[in-house]
Specification:
Radius of gyration: 48 Å
Shape: rod-shaped
Number of helices: 15
Helix content: 40-55%
Structural class: alpha/beta
Bound molecules: ligand C2E, calcium ion
Number of strands: 20
Distance between the termini: 45 Å
Strand order of the largest sheet: 11-12-14-15-16-17-18-19
Length: about 500
């Protein structure tokens, strides 16, 4: 089950870039789609106004011509006809004008009365009418009573068709006159398959222009009109894919690996013994972490501790090694000498709240004794904020029979106020000072001053990194109480450590 969970997680990690890319794409394309829809509406409204302005112009022209030509019924056709012809010639939207006088076809701009075929009965004819796409329409006119004289105009269908031509493939512009629907294809039955925007005419002739548009617009249309937007969204999607892949590989990848290592208990506790300087008696250990990776390589803490601290995994990682140490030493707990030091390194991440106190309690519970002294090593390299929480944390640790050691002393900020704020118990002199013993006078002076500070503050001092007899002798002579280093014992896995001569002697001698 563990294995399958791991497998699922790995598959999910592979899918993540796709998922984020698809998600980005979806948002982007939906945005374009909605924008196109909104634009479609705006565009259609604009189309309506364009059509209306043209048609109103034609209607106004019909109206003016009607007003002018109605008076021509007073004269004879011979005089009138050239005038009618001139009007038709100058107004391309009008194909012909027929005049009715005393309910009879009187005069036409054409050779024949074009309107004749549309009117059987001239008794009830409105004063002004027009013919468009073979349909007869009344023109609102003042005193539009059915009189003896009338004017009928045939409008150029092509002109209207041209006005009604859609501006986009996805549009359909309809002129609604009375109950007739006219599109660029002529009179059409009305089918409302589309989204529509209706706009009534602005002039005195009542009609409606209705632009229908296909929504959702087709991919082709979208690409044609929103190609730039599509390009940007596609580019963003690709960037998103590669960026997520990069994040997973470079950031969360290592996080994931470390997370898995902690879960699979691949972080191991290594033990380095600590010795009393005067008789080289083992007085405790420092626990150091090592990552046993799947290729059987051992990863050193300098590589993964910064990541663990950055990601907060330092907390479960420390819990893991504390548990390993406690459970491994538990069978020997009663045989351990009093105040046997077990040192753990913690980072400032542990000092954000008081949770670490519970980890320490759990440690003692696992170890099944309070005999051992838990030594908490806080490094001077990173500043731990002195506040109520940290003060309380260190106070509580002391009540739990834990001691605090200030690690790497001398290379950090040498913040002496720490010694009081956190009631530090031990100073650990950094190995960089130890390694320079005998090399130059300045290093010697610094080392001497550090040892002196410890003495003056009545703190016990540890020195780490002892590799030579000369270093060990020098430190012992200077009064450093505890020594640690490769000379005396290298870090080793805890299971090996408990088999060492040192440890076996320790548990038998304390019986
Ligand atoms: P540190 O706490 O100062 O630990 C002492 C380091 O010096 C260890 O390195 C140890 O292996 C090394 N050392 C001991 N004796 C000698 C010696 O004679 N010569 C030399 N050259 N080196 C010696 P390591 O194990 O690589 O750990 C490096 C640092 O990583 C530690 O420095 C500590 O700050 C951190 N670290 C290790 N384990 C943990 C952990 O579990 N939690 C936290 N927060 N930090 C850890
Ligand atoms: Ca340490
Ligand atoms: Ca150190």
């Amino acid at each position: 089950m563990e294995l399958s969970r791991k497998k699922n997680f790995a598959i999910l990690r592979k899918l993540y870039p796709f998922i984020t890319a698809i998600f980005t794409g979806l948002i982007g394309y939906t945005g374009i789609f909605l924008y196109a829809k909104y634009q479609g509406r705006a565009f259609s409204t604009q189309t309506n106004y364009m059509a209306i302005s043209h048609i109103d112009e034609i209607m106004a022209s019909i109206y003016t011509i009607a007003t002018t030509t109605l008076h021509l019924t007073d004269t004879d056709c011979k005089t009138t006809r050239p005038l009618l012809m001139a009007i038709v010639k100058n107004n391309p939207e009008i194909k012909s004008i027929d005049l009715i006088k005393n309910k009879q076809f009187f005069c036409s701009s054409d050779n024949q009365f074009v309107a004749k075929q549309y009117f059987n009965n001239l008794d009830r004819i409105p004063k002004v009418s027009y013919i468009l796409f073979n349909q007869v329409f009344d023109m609102p006119y003042p005193n539009n009573n059915k009189e003896n004289n009338a004017v009928i105009m045939v409008i150029d269908d092509q002109e209207i068709k041209h006005i009604l031509e859609p501006r986009l493939d996805t549009q359909l512009v309809t002129l609604k006159l009375d109950n007739t629907n006219i599109t660029y294809q002529g009179v059409t039955p009305y089918t409302k398959n589309y989204y529509t925007v209706k706009t009534p005419s602005l002039g005195q002739t009542p009609y409606i222009i209705e632009t229908s548009y296909i929504s959702p617009p087709t991919i082709g249309v979208l690409l044609f009109y929103y190609g730039k937007h599509f390009f940007i969204v596609t580019l963003l999607t690709i960037i998103c894919y590669f960026f997520t892949r990069w994040v997973i590989k470079n950031i969360s990848g290592s996080y994931y690996e470390l997370h898995m290592a902690i879960r699979d208990e691949k972080i191991k506790a290594y033990i380095q013994p600590l010795f009393r300087a005067e008789d080289y008696q083992i007085i405790g250990v420092e626990v150091l972490s090592r990552w046993h990776d799947s290729n059987s390589t051992i990863i050193m803490p300098d590589t993964f501790i910064p990541l663990a601290e950055k990601t907060g995994l330092i907390i479960p990682m420390t819990q893991l090694i504390m548990k390993e140490v406690a459970t491994t030493l538990a069978p020997y707990a009663k045989k351990l000498p009093d105040n046997f030091h077990i040192g753990f390194n913690i980072s400032c991440f542990h000092c954000k709240d008081l949770e670490f106190i519970n980890d320490c309690r759990r440690f003692f519970k696992h170890l099944r004794t309070n005999k051992a002294t838990l030594v908490i090593e806080v490094t001077e390299r990173e500043l731990i904020e002195v506040n109520e929480t940290t003060k309380l944390l260190f106070k509580e640790l002391h009540t739990l029979n834990a001691k605090i050691a200030l690690d790497d002393f001398g290379i950090g900020n040498s913040n002496l106020s720490y010694l009081y704020d956190f009631s530090i118990d031990y100073l650990k002199i950094d190995k960089s000072f130890v390694s320079r013993i005998g090399s130059d006078a300045l290093s010697k002076n610094i080392l001497d001053s550090i040892i002196e500070i410890a003495h003056n503050c009545k703190l016990e001092s540890f020195a780490e990194g002892i590799e030579t007899e000369e270093q060990a002798n020098y430190l012992r002579e200077k009064g450093v109480r505890f020594l640690q280093g490769y000379l005396l014992g290298k870090p080793m896995p805890i299971n090996e450590f408990i088999k060492t001569k040192h440890f076996q002697q320790l548990i038998t001698s304390s019986l």
